[in-house]
Amino acid sequence: MTTIERLDGWKASGVINEEQHALLSSYVRHERFSIFVELSALLYLGVLSIIAGLTWTFRDYIDRLGDVAILSILLILMTVAFGYCFIKTRPYSNDEVESPTFAFDYVLYFACLVFSSTLAFIQTRFTVFHGWDAHLLIASLVFGAIAYRFDNRFVLSLALSTLAGYLGLRFDLFDGLEDDQLRIMAMLYGAFLLGIGWLLHRSRIKRHFFDVFLQLGANAILLANAHGTIDGSNLYLLVLLLLSGASIALGLRYRRFAFVLYGTLYGYFGLTVRVLDLARSATFGLLWLVVTGTVVLLTLVVVARRFGRDEE
Amino acid sequence: MTIYSRDDERSIRVERLVRDWRKSGLITEEQRDRMLPDLKVDLRRTNLFLRIALFVFGYVIVNAAVGLIAINVDTNGAAMKWVTSIAAIGSFFAAQWIISQYRVYRFGVEEALAVAAATLFMIAGAMLFFRNFSTLYAFGAGAIAAFVVFRRFGYVYAGVAAIALATCFIFDLEESDTFRRLFSAILLLTVFFFSRERRQDHEWDFPADTYAILETVAWGGLYFVTNLKITTWFSLPDEVPVFYWSTYALIWILPIAGLWFAIRDRHRWMLDLNIVLAIVTLSTNKPYLGAAQKPWDPILFGVMLIVVSLGLRRWIAGGANGSRRGFVAHRLLESEKAKLSLAGTATVLVPSAPAPHSQPSPEIGGGGRSGGAGASGKF
């Protein structure tokens, strides 16, 4: 039975009315076809491309243009872009706010990127901040405030990744957390995100952003401990297993199955790396994977049958 | 030949649509609750994350078990091809058995077995007729196995893998680059038109959605083997001027033709792909012509993208009921908003604006750390 035949059946049995039938049929037949996502993607790429081009041009022509000209261009762009956003914006609300115009989110994103470039330029040419760290921290705080004021997920992501940059972190699965100092920093970063995310969620401030904090925070902490485990530390392994367990338990409790996945993969990975490191035998290693893998698999099957439905 | 019935596949897809319609406010909760029982299938499913976990562990177990047997029964490696062959057949039938016994659908475990069967067959194929590992036979066997998995279980990623591996098989032949590109283009065009034909038979109902993806992948593959500037890492082009300039013409023709197909058929995958291809063509135009890229090229390019986006939106919105021939520039479904939210969150992994790469880095300048919107680099 085709989708149209289904809709015909629901109309005939009075589940949907004539109007709904016509509308839904037009969607199914692609007679009404939205290109909203594609147009948004073009705007996003356009903004990134302009920023890349500006940076490249200023870098190549810094001697010819001079500091004043470059700074003036950046300031004008920033003022115009932020000015547009402050004029067009809707009043602040703790709930989700729809963008006032189609281009609004991308103008704001552009303004933030220009602001960041301006700070970088000032720092490079006049060294007014105390090194790069202060500059990134300022950018991160400003982005965070803007993200909440204008309800913009792109800018929030920018704020969080800039904060990571301030702490010297890179989001890389295989590299980037090579020493204890960075791992501890990553854990603090993750804990901070979880804490602030929870606090804002509890205060009912932009609750739709909560998931961004959770995902990033949990992964930062688990990844830091996984890296520590690879280096042979039992303390990291212990913490990793505890946190993985917590991630699985909380994921099941609140039906956020991404965290069940994170907990399972990070925890199993950490434990397996340590066991294989100690055993150093191919037969034992493969046997370990078969036996423990089967145990985890069967447990997951039980969990999937009990909790995980397609729609969740 | 497919293990799942067409009605079940369609019901599952309509169920997803019904949920999206509800979230988009097109139907009420009561209407949804009256529709869903009609779409009930006796297949057990799970959510995406548990499916991924089940797939990962299932795949690891199968491969570890095969490795365990191989290293214990065969100390010099001679029996490896037989172990992998038997394991491939065993995994394939195990996947079928699990599906028919437990009525699972995209549950992870059966997918792991089916994919393991294909990869094991690929290894077996590579070693069956040779003492050493033959990549040519590996690609050939992999393409056949992936196609069988696609036909039997309907996994679209297996179909995509079959296309990719068949292309790799051709590129592994000991022939000139021009021959390999032409041969691949013929194969990909054949896949494209076959998939297109199959899609059009079903008017966007299953299996049209699956064939739409294969059609798009074949078209993308055709562009990939045609554009010599983005594939030098894959296969070094011959210096044949006629071929070179023919491919230059084609990298312009393909996105335009693709967009025309996409707009005519309202084909989302083709539309998205050909937008990307058009962008790639614009980015590789100067390297093709041997012209130096200027620092302001990205600015012009960005302005052009924004003008196109805003201009199109304004033009479409200016039509009757905010629509031009059925195309609208606003959101219709909640799932479109979810896509953008996901993209917004994912930008946390984008370290900065793309750095210019087509000419050597200037003396002053540098990379940058995570985030900072590109500002962690230097001017």
Question: Would you write up a description of this structure?
Answer:
The radius of gyration of chain A is 25 Å and the shape is flat. Chain A folds into 3 domains: 1-33, no CATH class; 39-166, no CATH class; 184-312, no CATH class. In chain A, 77% of the residues lie in helices and 1% in strands. Chain A contains 13 helices and 1 strand. With 312 residues, chain A is an all-alpha fold. Chain B has 379 residues and is mainly alpha-helical. Chain B has a domain at 194-295. Helices cover 67% and strands 1% of the residues of chain B. Chain B contains 13 helices and 2 strands. Chain B has helices at 6-23, 29-35, 48-73, 80-102, 109-128, 135-153, 156-171, 177-201, 208-226, 241-265, 268-289, 297-317, 334-346, and strands at residues 323-324, 327-328. In chain B, β1 and β2 form a beta hairpin. In chain B, α10 (241-265) runs antiparallel to α11 (268-289). The radius of gyration of chain B is 24 Å and the shape is flat. The model of chain B is unreliable at 352-379 (pLDDT under 50). Chains A and B meet through α1, α2, β1, α3 and α6 of A and α1, α2, α3, α11 and α12 of B. β1 (33-34) of chain A pairs parallel with β2 of chain B, so a sheet runs across the interface.
Structure, briefly:
In chain A, 77% of the residues lie in helices and 1% in strands. Chain A has 312 residues and is mostly helical. Chain A has 3 domains: 1-33, no CATH class; 39-166, no CATH class; 184-312, no CATH class.
